[in-house]
Design goal:
Order of helices and strands: HHHHHHH
Number of domains: 1
Strand content: under 5%
Shape: globular
Number of strands: 0
Number of helices: 7
């Protein structure tokens, strides 16, 4: 049996991917440092329960979601189904972690008697989570569930990519809104005095924006897309033949 041909990796791609991971891990670490140094740390059964929310969102809806989007750029020669499963699993982990963050903030508000869903950040957050969940469900139905036809997958693929990038961008924007809201609630007028917490959080905001920008840049480079493998092309021809009413085996 002939060995499967492998596609060459663009020279600059590994450096951009490595840079995105450095940014992502740094922003997660800096989120933990911000919460530990200036917000008292993290605990579920105490006043620190609220701090679970920003950490979970940074890990789930920012870092893991970004990595899930990059799967098809990083794993260029692996079997398509393996790559699909990894892409889907990363999104599942991101959803679960984000759900923990949502439960934490709603439970904290309930215990404190605070109002829910009144701020722009909270509205955007719910919108992002609902869109993300729907995107995962539709993506699973079309690309992992065996009942979806090839023609249906082909028609939906461009929309899936577009909405995936859009939801990621909305996630970054919502995180920035939440960060600014948290600073204004605690620091108030002191925010303009270059308080150390404000400076650290501003740097965290820049990291969020840079991570989002690098991920989107990698995704939008057409020459960095995963090339079609030989077996994928053959499968496409088989489905095309089936939709035209002939059996692939009769060729």
């Amino acid at each position: 049996m002939e060995g499967r041909a492998t596609a060459s990796t663009p020279a600059a791609l590994p450096y951009y991917v490595a840079f995105s991971q450095l940014l992502g891990l740094t922003l997660v670490a800096m989120t933990g440092a911000w919460l530990g140094l200036y917000r008292g740390g993290i605990a579920w059964e105490s006043d620190l329960q609220f701090n679970v929310h920003p950490l979970c969102m940074a890990i789930g809806l920012i870092f893991l979601q970004g990595d899930a989007l990059l799967v098809y750029r990083v794993f260029r020669n692996e079997a398509k189904r393996t790559t699909k499963v990894l892409h889907g699993l990363l999104h599942v982990f991101a959803l679960i972690i984000a759900l923990v963050g949502l439960v934490a903030v709603f439970d904290y508000h309930r215990k404190k008697g605070y109002a829910d869903l009144y701020s722009l950040h909270s509205w955007c957050g719910i919108l992002v989570f609902v869109l993300y969940f729907v995107q995962w469900l539709v993506g699973f139905s079309f690309f992992l569930f065996p009942g979806a036809s090839f023609s249906l997958r082909s028609r939906y693929r461009a929309s899936h990519v577009f909405f995936g990038a859009t939801i990621f961008l909305l996630s970054v924007g919502t995180a920035l809104l939440g960060l600014k809201e948290a600073l204004l609630f605690k620091l108030g007028a002191k925010y303009s005095l270059f308080e150390p917490e404000g400076v650290l959080a501003n740097v965290l905001g820049l990291l969020l924006a840079c991570f989002g920008g690098v991920v989107l840049y990698i995704l939008t480079r057409p020459d960095w897309k995963r090339p079609s493998q030989a077996e994928e092309q053959a499968l496409s021809m088989d489905f095309k033949t089936l939709t035209e009413g002939d059996s692939p085996g009769s060729q």
